Structure formats: structure tokens, C-alpha cells
User: What shape does this take?
Amino acid sequence: MFRARGVVVHWIVLSLAGLCCQSPCHSAELPAASPDELARAAAKAEPGDTILVKAGRYKDWTMSLSCRGTAEQPIVVRPDAPGAVTFTGKTSLQLRGHHVVVRGFTFDGCVLPNRIVLFEQAKHCRVTECRFLNSNSGSGAAVVTFNHGADDNRLDHCEIINTVGRCVQVRIGAYAAEHGPPRRNRIDHNLFQDVPPKGSNGRETIQVGSNQRDYGHLEPQTLIENNVFLRCNGEGEIISNKSSRNTYRHNLFEDCRGELVMRGGSHCLIEGNRLENCNGGIRLHGTHHRVVHNVVVNPSGTGIRLAYGATIEQGGIY
Assistant: This one.
């Protein structure tokens, strides 16, 4: 019986080894030094591949990544040397693929006719360790936007500094009412710094939804955690929530002329945030929000404010 078992075990080991030999881990490096080369590399990229953008300073690149990696073998797009690639001008990057990681780029002095990074129909994609410096938007567009069909994506360990406009927007509108909002996107461990004042509405550092009257009931379940907001003075709302079941936790706000605001929606969690030397603390509209273990230090206004209603402005901005 011992030998019989040994034969069986030996056969199983050989069979598994054969399977491993038939399915090796794929990995290739694909170079790119122009938008066309990047497009060709993305078209041929397979799970586990790395697209390497040649070191340089590039202007007005339009990029779209629809390639598909896997959870175990994402497709990575990065400079061919750390910190070696800077994009400027009217540069835009659209993520439409699955399991794509964009890592380590600098975007300096970009002008935003629309946005720099757009997650649209993207699933499990990630933008990490990137720097967005001195961005300028005259149209109200954000540096990074999560748009239609963008689910389970992540923006993390990035720096977004001196943005004349919004930094991040989760867009929720008529398309979302029919097809559902962008879901379960995560914004974490980022630095938001030096957003100059606009003097009026429209320069939130982060906006999650834009019309709570019509779409505030939709549930994107956005997670915003472990970020630092330093001198984010764009307007009275540093973060503006206008949707439901989002989570804001363990963020630090310092020297900001604004508040963390639930402008509408319901069932949001505001937990473990710290606000120091800001205009106020936490302002609540909507219903069924939970506020727990937050610290508000030296506010110039109210620490926690429960509003009884929301103003509907002329021109359809809610």
C-alpha cells in the first residue's frame, strides 16, 4: 500500500509540474517615447507586462489605456527610471482598462480643458506615486475624475499641489441615474496642498457628486481615508459630499479655509478625522450620517454644525 500511494503521489507531482510548465508567468517590457508608441504598446500588452516611458519632459500627450491585466499580473505603466518623466501642457490620460497600474509620473503645469486623469469604464485600476503640480483649470474640471463605469479603482500616495481648480471629482449625473454611479473607488494616502481661493463656489478639493437634489440618493460607496489636506483654501467646502454611503475617515486637515461638508446624501460615515486651525469643522446636511471620534482643534467657526436645510442656487447648482 505504501508503494501504491507513492506512485499516486509521484504522478500528481509530475502532473502539477507539467501544468506549471504549460502556464509560465508572462512578463515583457514595452518601450514608449511618444503617444503613438504608447498606444501601440498598450494594444499589445498582456497581463504582467510593463510599459516603460522613456525619460524626458513631454508636452500635450493624449493617452488612453484600455489594456487588461489581472489581479495577480497587472499591466504597469511607469517611467524607465524613477522620477524621469514629466508631462506638461494639455496632457490627458484616460484609463478604460482592467487592472492597470500607472506609477511614478510627474504632471507639472498642465492646463485642464477637461481633466488630467480620467477613470472611465476602468475596473481595478490604480494611479499611485504620481505628482500633480501647478495644474490650472478655468472650466471647473478636476485634476482626477472618476466617471461613468469606473469601479474599484484607487488613487493613492500621490501629491496634488497648487491646483487652480478641483483636485478630485467623483461625477454623478444623469448617466449614473440610469446605469449606476462610479462605485467603490478609493482615494487614500494622498497629499492635497495649497489650493488657492476662488472667492465663490466651485473649487472643492474633493467633490463626490454634484447635485444632491436629483442624485444624492445614489450610492457610490467612495472611500476617502488617510489623506492630508494642507492650506486647501479653494472655497468653503474642502470636501463636498452630495451622494450616499461614502466613508471619510482618518484624514488630517490643517490651516484650511473650509470645512468637511456633507452637502447632502445619506448614510455616510465621518470617522477619526482631525481638523486643525480651519474655518470650521464638520457640517452636516442630509440624513442618517454617522459622525464618530473626530477631533476639531482651534476652528474659527463651529466645530460640528447640523444644518436644517440646503440652498438651491439660481442656475441649477445644488
